[in-house]
Design a protein that fits this description.
- 26% of the residues lie in helices and 34% in strands.
- It contains 2 helices and 5 strands, in the order βαββββα.
- The chain has a 5-stranded mixed beta sheet with strand order 1-5-4-3-2.
């Protein structure tokens, strides 16, 4: 899977770095087990867990290129959204 990220024009770095998220963590969430929902316009929202146990929310747009996505942002999943995600995962594992 080819992953491109939104680049912050001020820093020249991927926007996800501002949230302390690495490209590898995004890849782990996108290919791993999790929940995916339709976002606004053509975007998708993916909730998942990294191999290190970190819970993330990744917002991305699937691209026309085969097996390619454009990551808009990614950040820690917290609060009510995290509790709901864990609850859905427990129900699936039964």
């Amino acid at each position: 899977m080819h992953i491109r990220s939104h680049i912050d024009p001020e820093t020249g770095q991927p926007h996800i770095h501002e949230h302390g998220v690495t490209e590898e963590e995004v890849r782990q969430v996108l290919v791993g087990r999790g929940d995916e929902f339709q976002g606004t316009r053509n975007s998708r929202v993916r909730f998942g867990q990294t191999l290190a146990g970190r819970y993330l929310k990744v917002i991305f747009v699937p691209e026309l290129e085969r097996d390619s996505i454009f990551v808009i942002t990614a950040y820690d999943l917290r609060g009510q959204a995290l509790r709901a995600f864990r609850r859905r995962q427990r129900r699936r594992s039964r």
